[in-house]
UniProtKB/TrEMBL annotation:
Protein name in UniProt: Beta-defensin-like domain-containing protein
Organism: Zonotrichia albicollis
Database matches in Pfam families: Defensin_beta
Superkingdom assignment: Eukaryota
GO cellular-component term (any): extracellular region
Domain Beta-defensin-like, chain residue ranges per copy: 32-58
Keyword terms, alphabetized: Signal
SUPFAM superfamilies recorded: Defensin-like (SSF57392)
Coiled coil: none
Signal sequence, start to end: 1-20
Organismal lineage: Eukaryota, Metazoa, Chordata, Craniata, Vertebrata
GO BP terms: defense response
Length: 59
């Protein structure tokens, strides 16, 4: 029974991390692009923002 108190916070952290992953890639999936941190690589162009410091790029 004591182990449940230790597992509960771990499960919450995993669920919270999984929720953030979808947020980052949402814009990129809508425009068939990808999310990159801060700037787009050479040969791609900026098409929007994903979340926070991530930008959406497309070839």
């Amino acid at each position: 029974m004591k182990i449940l108190f230790l597992l509960f916070p771990l499960i919450l952290l995993l669920v919270q991390g999984a929720a953030g992953e979808k947020e980052r890639g949402d814009m990129g999936e809508r425009v068939r692009g990808f999310c990159s941190r801060r700037s787009c690589p050479y040969g791609t162009r900026f098409v929007g923002r994903c979340a926070g410091e991530y930008v959406c790029c497309r070839r």
